[in-house]
């Protein structure tokens, strides 16, 4: 199955701070989680993609949070610079990849203002999580691309096996 995967989860240094969120090398993942992740990588066709970098947001870049997750969307940096358009371009670029390559499932990094699928930071830059989706995860799900995060590898595996 074709799976779009957040580049940072694959170990690419594309995060805002110039680092990655590697599952395979990360200390916060158990051996069995890493093993499951490697199985998924080996058994499927992986498309590595970073929405924010695709939209021209550099590495490193100042972190951003979502102030409005519904239209009109608003994404800002802590210095109040409005980066909404870049985040919307990031989401559109990702959807284009999925449509062009007929990708129906994505494994995206949790909590990101682009990739988060269940929780996001609340827009106050106080490290406070709320329920919500990043703009890319939201657009993909609205267009029938199933989104899982790195803590949902078992669910992703079950999805792969039943689709
Ligand atoms: S936009 Fe997504 S893929 Fe890119 S660094 Fe952020 S979480 Fe990772």
Q: What is the count of distinct domains? A: 1
Strand content: 15-25%
Shape field: globular
Radius of gyration: 15 Å
Low-confidence stretches: none
Please bin the fraction of helical residues: 25-40%
Strand order of the largest sheet: 2-1-5-8
Q: Count helical runs.
A: 5
The major beta sheet can be summarized as: 4 strands, parallel
Count of extended strands: 8
The set of bound ligands, ions and cofactors reads: iron/sulfur cluster
Distance between the termini: 9 Å
Structural class: alpha/beta
SSE topology sketch:
Blueprint: E1 2-6, H1 31-43, E2 45-49, H2 51-54, E3 64-68, E4 74-77, H3 84-101, E5 105-108, E6 119-121, E7 129-131, H4 135-142, E8 146-149, H5 153-162
Parallel strand pairs: 1-2, 1-5, 5-8
Antiparallel strand pairs: 3-4, 6-7
The structure holds iron/sulfur cluster.
Iron/sulfur cluster is lined by residues 6-8, 14-15, 50-52, 109, 112, 114-115.
Which features would summarize this protein structure in a list?
two-stranded antiparallel sheet, 163 residues, 8 strands, alpha/beta, 5 helices, binds iron/sulfur cluster, 4-stranded parallel sheet
């Amino acid at each position: 199955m074709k799976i779009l995967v957040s580049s940072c989860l694959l170990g690419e240094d594309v995060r805002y701070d110039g680092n990655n969120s590697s599952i395979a090398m990360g200390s916060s993942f158990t051996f069995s989680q890493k093993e499951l992740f490697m199985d998924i990588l080996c058994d499927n066709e992986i498309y590595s993609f970073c929405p924010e970098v695709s939209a021209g947001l550099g590495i490193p870049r100042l972190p951003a949070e979502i102030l409005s997750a519904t239209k009109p969307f608003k994404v800002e940096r802590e210095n109040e610079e409005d980066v909404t358009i870049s985040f919307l371009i990031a989401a559109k670029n990702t959807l284009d990849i999925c449509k062009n390559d007929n990708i129906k499932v994505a494994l995206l990094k949790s909590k990101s203002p682009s990739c988060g699928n269940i929780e996001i930071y609340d827009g106050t830059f106080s490290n406070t999580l709320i329920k919500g989706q990043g703009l890319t995860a939201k657009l993909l799900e609205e267009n029938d691309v199933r989104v899982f995060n790195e803590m949902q590898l078992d669910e992703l595996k079950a999805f792969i096996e039943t689709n």
